[in-house]
Design goal:
By secondary structure, the chain is of the alpha/beta class. 36% of the residues lie in helices and 15% in strands. It has a single domain, classed as Rossmann fold.
Length: 243
């Protein structure tokens, strides 16, 4: 998730979205078993060496345990990653730095046309940029529900793993940020329960319990330890889902 950070109305850190996959020849659609779409903002995208995404650590966990899968998305990393188990890192994803829930909702249909139907979506830090940008909270929840609606319309059997997001560094979290982060943790549980159908599971995963300041590279983004923490939480769910 790429957070746009505002304190008392003053923009402290604003990073532009890279959109590295836009305007290029579309990638061939995956025919793999278990197509996984990592969806979100800068916590998905990464910006090595400044901060990490969970994707590389999760990819290693899944490969090490013999899971069949393929990360998909219109975006690709430009960073360098060590090979693991004789394979190069699968760099595909749908993380876009700085993007709000409304922007993700607006782009998602076109991205899905390009990637084809994912079997599993990892919905990272939903609403994080909205909260830090002081956007309307009710609209944020509405956007999150609409994103899930669109994913389920694209594939009625999709499994969506949605984060109860980890907070930012404690000295950065204002009273207002903390209140909103605490609220969205519980609202994501309601979203998951309401949006789950007989064909499509929506699974909320707790990313905040046990998350520490020393898992962050800056106010809100993961360092390597934080990336490993988030990857492990995802893996604990995925190991029971993947063929």
């Amino acid at each position: 998730m790429k957070f746009k950070i505002f304190v008392l109305g003053i923009s402290l850190l604003i990073f532009n979205a890279c959109n590295k996959g836009d305007g290029k020849t579309p990638k061939p659609q995956s025919t793999s078993t278990n197509k996984i779409l990592p969806l979100g903002a800068s916590r998905v995208e990464e910006a090595r060496p400044e901060f990490e995404s969970y994707r590389y650590e999760l990819w290693k966990d899944l490969r090490e345990n013999g899971c069949a899968f393929d990360f998909i998305g219109t975006q690709s990393d430009n960073a360098s990653y060590p090979a693991f188990g004789g394979a190069e890192f699968d760099v595909d994803h749908e993380g876009r730095s700085g993007w709000t829930s409304n922007e993700i909702l607006g782009g998602l249909d076109n991205w899905l046309i390009q990637t084809g139907c994912p079997d599993i979506v990892l919905f990272s830090s939903p609403g994080g940029n909205d909260i830090l940008g002081n956007l309307d909270y009710n609209q944020t929840i509405s956007n999150i529900n609409s994103i899930i609606d669109l994913l389920q319309a694209n594939n009625p059997n999709v499994t969506i793993i949605i984060e109860q997001l980890a907070e930012g560094r404690s000295d950065f979290m204002t009273t207002e940020f903390t209140k909103a982060f605490n609220q969205i943790k519980y609202d994501i549980l309601t979203v998951a329960n309401t949006q789950t159908t007989t064909e499509s599971q929506v699974i909320a995963v707790d990313m905040f319990t046990g998350f520490k300041n020393n898992y962050l590279a800056d106010e809100v983004h993961y360092n390597e330890a934080g990336a490993e923490f988030i990857a492990t939480r995802y893996y604990n769910v995925l190991e029971n889902l993947l063929e």
